[in-house]
Each structure stands twice: as structure tokens, then as C-alpha cells.
Specification:
Layout (H helix, E strand, L loop, with lengths): L5 E6 L4 H11 L10 E6 L4 H17 L4 E7 L2 H4 L5 E4 L15 H18 L5 E4 L4 H10 L9 E3 L2 H15 L6 E2 L2 E3 L7 E3 L4 E2 L2 E2 H5 L2 H13 L1 H9 L5 H16 L6 E6 L11 E9 L2 E4 L7 H20 L5
Parallel strand pairs: 1-2, 1-4, 2-3, 4-5, 5-6
Antiparallel strand pairs: 7-10, 8-9, 10-11, 12-13, 13-14
Helix pairs in contact: 1-10, 4-5, 6-8
The structure holds nicotinamide-adenine-dinucleotide and (2S)-2-hydroxybutanedioic acid (LMR).
The site of nicotinamide-adenine-dinucleotide has 29 residues, from helix 1.
Family: Belongs to the LDH/MDH superfamily. MDH type 2 family.
Catalytic activity: (S)-malate + NAD(+) = oxaloacetate + NADH + H(+)
Enzyme class: oxidoreductase
């Protein structure tokens, strides 16, 4: 017997990430090849955006996806989020050259107060929320704080792109397959202060750190490359990352819903106080997922260099939080 459809809301559905994301959700790459989906697509009320959204929906129709059980266009989060199981909050302004993601707070923060309130009012109580719009951690924090009747654990921010970027850089440096790298993670904020940490990573049981050997490479090449990759893409493409961002969003939601079979992944989640991060701070952690729940990997040793990096990214998140306190 076929499963009941899951309702998935995607905001910014006519944007560039939306265009790389929707077709993959409809084809079953996010929630499973046996899981029908209904897409509830939100765009701003602007006539041009709504028309572009209609165009994307025409293309979705033309794919005749067997798992696409329905779709609807919305300009109001109160209807877009009605009874949803999953929300991918993508709709927000992207940065341009020379900007940092936190420079977007003034433009984007209010979107997430309104959308948090709408989720609070109409979404399923078990809704899984992934915030992609930048600055992702602080926007997720705003949405969570604006939805007091929903469990805090339902709100997450995307650090999976940083995780995937790190994996590729490590695989290239060590000359190993991405798929063979285990127990890698990224701590903190989706910003250049993030701390991509391969101290625990292994390849077929061997320490990746030992395989790489070159301690200097971590500080002078790896961390800056991963941390500034978003800006490098903007510089090269003239637009911010889209297909790789959509891919990371699919990875994040798939792993959360379907589980990681013991593998570590990175998710931005509200802290429970682990590793000394203040409760509720939306922080990138190593997690494993099982039965639709994520669990922070506990008991990792934090050396002096790592603690300095973690303190730096936490300080930035605290600053961003202070900058939006008037909205909460
Ligand atoms: P885009 O400009 O191509 O598309 C954004 C879309 O969102 C537009 O169609 C716009 O009309 C819509 N939108 C704006 N406000 C909205 C609202 N209140 N409700 C619904 N829709 C709204 O941008 P993009 O390239 O798709 O990027 C979207 C966001 O994702 C940006 O903030 C970008 O910085 C961020 N991003 C995050 C990551 C990450 O790793 N967390 C990676 C890449 C991009
Ligand atoms: C990224 O990391 O590619 C995105 O957050 C877009 C950006 O502004 O860098």
C-alpha cells in the first residue's frame, strides 16, 4: 500500500536554489523513493515572482513525477505552512560581492519572525524546519523564538554545505574517496568563523589527520578555503551557490528524516548546553540521526586550538543574536 503524502513547504520557490531543489524533492531524493510529497510553495506577493513560480510549477508538472501528489502556490505563510511536515525556508535575499552573510540580517531577519509565527500557528507540531536563507543560524534562531508553541528541536540551520565542502577538500588533499571519510564535522556559525574539524576523521579506520600529516595546511589552507568558499563562488559565478546549496538541503533533511545509520553529519541545531555552548544558541554540531531525531555526538576532546575556534564562532553568533533582540 502506498504511503500517505508528506506536505513539504518551500519558501523562495521561484529563486535560484528553489529551481535546483524542487525537482529533487519531487523525485523522491529527499524523503525516499516510496514517499509521495505535496509541495506548498511560497513566494512574495509580487506579480513577477508569482508568475515565475507558476512557470516552475508548470515544469514540475511536465516532469510527471510519480511521487508528486500535489502542489500549490502561496503568497501568505499562513496558508503555505498549513499542516506541513517539513519546511525548507530558503526565501531571503542573497549576499553580493564584498558582503558578509551577517550584513543580510537587516534585510532578512523580519522574514523569519513572520514565518516563525506562521509555523507556530498552522504547521504540524512535529514539523521539521530547515533554514537556508542567510544568515542561516540567526534566522533559524529567530524563527524558533517566534514559534513558542513548537518544540525548539524542530528548528535547524544549514551547515551541511560547509560539511560537504570540507569533505571534498579533505578527500582531494588525502587522495581518498569522499565516501570513505567518516566522523568529520563543522562547529558553529555558517560564516567564515565556522570551525571545520577533521581531528577525529577516519578513512577505513585510519586517522585522516595522520594521513594528511601537514599541520600547517589545516590553518593556512583548509580552514580559510572552507570558511570562504561561499564568497569564492560568488566571485566566480557572480551569484551565490545554488545547486550545491540545494544539494546540501536535500542531504540535511533526508538524513534527519531517514537517519544516518550511525554516520556523523553536521547540523545547525539549538544547543542543549553541550560543549559549553549556551542553551538555544543555533550552533553547528556533529550529530547522528535515527528515527527522525538528531543526537549530538558527545564526549569529544576539545583541545586549545579548537576551543579558541569554537569561542570565536560563538562570539559572532552572540553578536548576531544581540543585533536581533529587538525583533524577539
Ligand atoms: P534568490 O534571490 O535567487 O531567491 C530567493 C527567492 O526568495 C526570491 O525568488 C524571492 O522572491 C524569495 N523571497 C524573498 N523573500 C521571501 C519571503 N518573505 N517569502 C517567500 N519568498 C521570499 O536567492 P537564492 O540564491 O535562492 O538564495 C536564497 C537564500 O539562501 C539567500 O539568503 C542565500 O544567501 C541563502 N543561501 C544559504 C546557504 C547556506 O548554506 N545556508 C547556501 C546558499 C544560499
Ligand atoms: C554559501 O555558503 O555559498 C552561501 O551561504 C551563500 C553565501 O552568501 O556565501
Amino acid at each position: 500500500m502506498s504511503k500517505a503524502p508528506m506536505k513539504v513547504a518551500v519558501t523562495g520557490a521561484a529563486g535560484q536554489i528553489g529551481y535546483s531543489l524542487l525537482f529533487r524533492i519531487a523525485s523522491g531524493e529527499m524523503l525516499g523513493k516510496d514517499q509521495p510529497v505535496e509541495l506548498q510553495l511560497l513566494e512574495i506577493p509580487d506579480e513577477k515572482a508569482q508568475k515565475a513560480l507558476k512557470g516552475v510549477m508548470m515544469e514540475l508538472e511536465d516532469c510527471a513525477f510519480p511521487l508528486l501528489a500535489g502542489m500549490s502556490a502561496h503568497s501568505d505563510p499562513m496558508t503555505a505552512f498549513k499542516d506541513i511536515d517539513c519546511a525548507l525556508l530558503v526565501g531571503a535575499r542573497p549576499r553580493g560581492p564584498g558582503m558578509e552573510r551577517k550584513d543580510l540580517l537587516a534585510a532578512n531577519a523580519q522574514i523569519f519572525t513572520a514565518q516563525g509565527k506562521a509555523l507556530n500557528a498552522v504547521a504540524k507540531r512535529t514539523v521539521k524546519v530547515l533554514v537556508v536563507g542567510n544568515p542561516a543560524n540567526t534566522n533559524a534562531y529567530i524563527a524558533m523564538k517566534s514559534a513558542p508553541d513548537l518544540p525548539k528541536k524542530n528548528f535547524t540551520a544549514m551547515l551541511r554545505l560547509d560539511h560537504n565542502r570540507g569533505l571534498s577538500q579533505l578527500a582531494a588533499k588525502a587522495g581518498v574517496a569522499v565516501a570513505d571519510i567518516e566522523t568529520f564535522c563543522v562547529w558553529g556559525n555558517h560564516s567564515p568563523t565556522m570551525y571545520a574539524d577533521y581531528r577525529f576523521a577516519t578513512v577505513k579506520g585510519k586517522s585522516l589527520k595522520d594521513m594528511i600529516g601537514d599541520e600547517e595546511w589545516n590553518r593556512t589552507a583548509f580552514l580559510p578555503t572552507v570558511g570562504k568558499r561561499g564568497a569564492a563562488i560568488i566571485e566566480a559565478r557572480g551569484l551565490s551557490s545554488a545547486a550545491s546549496a540545494a544539494n546540501a538541503a536535500i542531504d540535511h533533511m533526508r538524513d534527519w528524516v531517514l537517519g544516518t545509520q550511525g554516520k556523523w553529519v553536521t547540523m545547525g541545531i539549538p544547543s542543549d548546553g553541550s560543549y559549553g555552548i549556551p542553551v538555544d544558541t543555533m550552533f553547528g554540531y556533529p550529530v547522528t540521526c535515527e528515527g527522525g531525531e538528531y543526537k549530538i555526538v558527545q564526549g569529544l576532546a576539545i583541545d586549545e586550538f579548537s576551543q579558541t575556534c569554537i569561542n570565536k564562532t560563538l562570539a559572532e553568533l552572540n553578536e548576531e543574536k544581540d543585533g536581533v533582540s529587538h525583533l524577539l
